[in-house]
Amino acid sequence: MAMVFDRIAIIGIGLIGASIARAAREYGVANTIHLYDANPTVRERARELGLGEVFDDAEKAVAKAELVVLAVPVGAMAAAAEACKRGLKIGAIVTDVGSVKQAVVDALKAVLPTFVYFIPGHPLAGTEHSGPDAGFASLFQNRWQILTPLPDQGAAYPAAVDQLEEFWRALGANVERMDAARHDVVLAVTSHLPHLIAFNIVAMAEDLESVTESEVVKFSASGFRDFTRIAASDPTMWRDVFLNNREAVLEVLGRFSEDLAALQRAIRWSEGDTLYDLFDRARRMRREVIDAGQDTPAPNWGREN
Ligand code: NAP
After folding, report:
1. pLDDT tens-place string over residues 116-157
2. Would residue 93 count as lying in a domain?
3. In angstroms, rounded to a whole number, what is the distance separating the alpha carbons of residues 92 and 116?
4. N or C: which end of the chain has fewer CB within 10 A?
5. Is the CB–ligand 1 distance for residue 135 below 6 Å?
């Protein structure tokens, strides 16, 4: 794979930042990888793992970098940009990986200098693990990277977007461009609401008085455990997602609550056809996800039990 950037800098060395560092190195996409994290323990660990050249100072980390990736929680994006902005090279591309786009665009536009190309992005790839040890090079393979380029950014901006797209393709991702507001609605449906439901169902099971916690854990293979994987995701990250994509999430949640009430009614009045039709439609959606290469066709995700 051809090199896309000579020097890149990654701010925030968690699951996503460490995965970008590993992938960029393994696939030969960048010559030099600079890293910075606000947490000294994380910086130390990144050094031990050999993820790249780790700096104790954000400005020094981004100096001369052609690409700067902000890989911190959504609520920390502005602070991360503030800490490195005086070191940014003129004409550098600055991108982010935040799970919410419009709020991050607003926060970063207010901080970043106009002499960089700011191109927001979001890799639809992740796991329930966090921190530098969780990163792995193949995380972005065959996953979607969404770019939400800003409108009216001048003549050289489209070429910068093309170069960033090439970078993500070289990491193994498929790239799609869309408007930030559209991204936030789509992700509210495909990611944010499913996480909210998982957090809620797992917390509810813990609080139920009629079933003991040990029974929930013991019999979890009947469905519950699949929710626990999603609900094990990082609390800081998810708090920031819901605080920053409030409108889209509330809109989708309203629709979900109505449909749930209709299901409740169908159960109460023994409307078997209603239940069957909905379950049948939902089952077909699973087939489409598999056909799109977004999950394994193996039963029970290929687990042995
Ligand atoms: P993570 O594993 O928790 O790593 C984030 C790192 O950033 C932590 O080491 C954190 O330090 C550090 N940090 C916090 N504030 C900082 C600042 N101001 N300057 C520099 N470093 C700072 O998180 P992640 O899962 O990689 O997520 C990073 C971003 O990617 C988030 O915006 C998230 O929405 C997005 N994303 C995540 C996933 C996923 O599945 N995890 C998928 C796609 C996109 P502390 O440990 O001290 O807080």
Report:
1. 999 999 999 999 899 999 999 999 999 999 999 999 999 999
2. yes
3. 5
4. C
5. no
